[in-house]
Every structure is written in structure tokens, then in C-alpha cells.
């Protein structure tokens, strides 16, 4: 069942989302060669708790940290540790918070220092695919319309979308119905209705979309080692468009 949120609920989700967006902006400033992903995680946890919110990922199915830090060929769910970021790498950071009973969820991929043009292009196309998906969102369009738009943009640029992870409804819980694949056929899937709140999150790789999970049970990387990027926004469906909630 896909929950329909009231305008008052959407306002509360918006507050959580604004905190997520603000924190991603702060984290971006800290991404320099030499910083460890654990330092980013500690900064994030302090930041969230100082705002009287709760890091939504920490403890979720035993996930051990407040953010996900996914470097290079890691697609999503990278666990922060003491490895230093190096010039030329790319890092996806995923943040979720719970505040006043409501969740917000967003992710972005950043370059570390000076990065090869081919990886900057991957980041750019992934970001564009998120926004092209969001453009398909309005009342009575269907999930498949946005899934298809994302896939088309990615594949037109010679990349592939990851199949094993999908976007999701969000708000009262971190993961609600519906599942939102980043591939699919137009005019299929659930119909969008005003008041739905959705986390759209394309994950894009330069190689094959086959995934491997590391022994830590979380880290998801591409099997062939090709680099991967991830962007995510939480949005609210209205009669005419999607309102992006994860903005400052
Ligand atoms: N944005 C991701 C998601 O919605 C992050 C989940 S990380 C987890 O699935 F640790 F909470 F699982
Ligand atoms: Co998500």
C-alpha cells in the first residue's frame, strides 16, 4: 500500500529533508584528499544529533554508521572506516535522518580533488538522470514512466543502471512502498497520486550492472570493478509536478 501524506506531514518530512540537504552541503566541504570516511561519519552524526534528529541508517538492520560512503567501484552502502580518501577518487554519500517522527533521505556523489574527465561525466549523467526521472513525476503518471526515463538517459550515454537496488516511498518509515526501479517500461507500475512521497535514487555504472556484496554484508560493489555513481532526492508528488524536498 502506498501511503498518502497530508500537507502537514509533508511539511514535517520537508524539515527532515532540509537537514539532510544542509548536511550534504557541509560534508561536501570536507571532501579533500586525506580525510577518512570515518571522520565524515562522525561529523555527520554530531551534526544530526545537534539538530535534535536521529541518524536514520544507524542500527537500521544493524547498519553500523550514520551515513553510507561509497568510493569508486562501490555502488551503495559503503561503511565508513579509517581509509583516507585519495585525489582522483569519487565518493557517494548517502544520508538519512529521522526528526519529529518523519524521515528524509538523499545522496550525492562528489569528486575528491582533481578527477579524470570520464568520472566527472559519469557523475554528471547520473545526476541528470535523477532530474529527468523527477520531471516525469506528476499525478496519474506511473512509476514505469520515470524508471524508463532514467534508464534511457543512462544508456544513451553508454552507461548502465544497477538493477539490484531501487528507490522507495519514504516518510513515516525509511522504506515504504512502492519500489522504484531505475529501469522499466513506460505506462507500467503504480499510478502516482498527490501526497505520495518518494525517494528516487539512480545508481549508474560505467560497466556491467552485476553486483557483488562484500563479506561485511553491506558494501555493494560492481563485480567488474567499474566506477559507479549515485544520486538521490526525496520528492513529494503534486497535481502538476514533483516538489524536491531535499533542498536547503
Ligand atoms: N538511501 C539508502 C536507502 O534508502 C540508504 C540505506 S542505508 C541503510 O536504501 F543503512 F539504512 F540501509
Ligand atoms: Co533511499
From TrEMBL:
InterPro entries: Creatinase/aminopeptidase-like, Pept_M24, Pept_M24_MAP, Pept_M24A_MAP1. It comes from the Bacteria. SUPFAM superfamilies: Creatinase/aminopeptidase (SSF55920). One of its GO terms (cellular component) is cytosol. Belongs to the peptidase M24A family. Methionine aminopeptidase type 1 subfamily. It catalyses: Release of N-terminal amino acids, preferentially methionine, from peptides and arylamides. Residues 12-238 form the Peptidase M24 domain. This is Methionine aminopeptidase. The keyword Magnesium does not apply. It holds the Pfam family Peptidase_M24. Removes the N-terminal methionine from nascent proteins. The N-terminal methionine is often cleaved when the second residue in the primary sequence is small and uncharged (Met-Ala-, Cys, Gly, Pro, Ser, Thr, or Val). Requires deformylation of the N(alpha)-formylated initiator methionine before it can be hydrolyzed. It is an enzyme of class 3 (hydrolase). Binds 2 divalent metal cations per subunit. Has a high-affinity and a low affinity metal-binding site. The true nature of the physiological cofactor is under debate. The enzyme is active with cobalt, zinc, manganese or divalent iron ions. Most likely, methionine aminopeptidases function as mononuclear Fe(2+)-metalloproteases under physiological conditions, and the catalytically relevant metal-binding site has been assigned to the histidine-containing high-affinity site. Monomer. Substrate binds at residues 77, 175. CDD domains: MetAP1. Its cofactor is Co(2+); Zn(2+); Mn(2+); Fe(2+). GO terms for biological process: proteolysis. Its EC number is 3.4.11.18. Keywords: Aminopeptidase, Hydrolase, Metal-binding, Protease. A divalent metal cation 2 binds at residues 105, 168, 201, 232.
